Known about the structure:
By secondary structure, the chain is an alpha/beta fold. It has helices spanning 16-19, 21-27, 82-91, 109-130, and strands spanning 2-6, 32-36, 48-54, 61-63, 98-104.
Amino acid sequence: MNVYIVGNPLIPKDSLPVRLMPGLQKKFPTVTFQPVDPNENFMPEEGSIIIDSVDGIRNVTEFHDIGVFLTTKSVSPHDYDLGFHLAFLSKVHKLPSLTIVGVPMGIDGSVALAELKQILRKLFDKRKNKS
């Protein structure tokens, strides 16, 4: 199973998901945590889990509706982020069902890792029970 990690290691407030990858891989060794860039033709498959930094939340949060990310209009190519990319895929009817796990910008890394582990365990258990 792949879990996609979105984040920019060069921008501190957007880099936490990338920095947490080693800890996640250690906790879930059978899962592949794959960094992706939504600007590079990222096409998530049905049932994907995507981890990304999210501004304006206090805890690691699970989302199933991309509408919560589309609060502002894009005005330049610099605004092209995961939310915009997923909205585009939805508009052209190419967006599969997926789960986005949002990591708050500015959260302590150890707190984020603990919360991520808990949410991912729940998501993985739910999938296991479906099979």
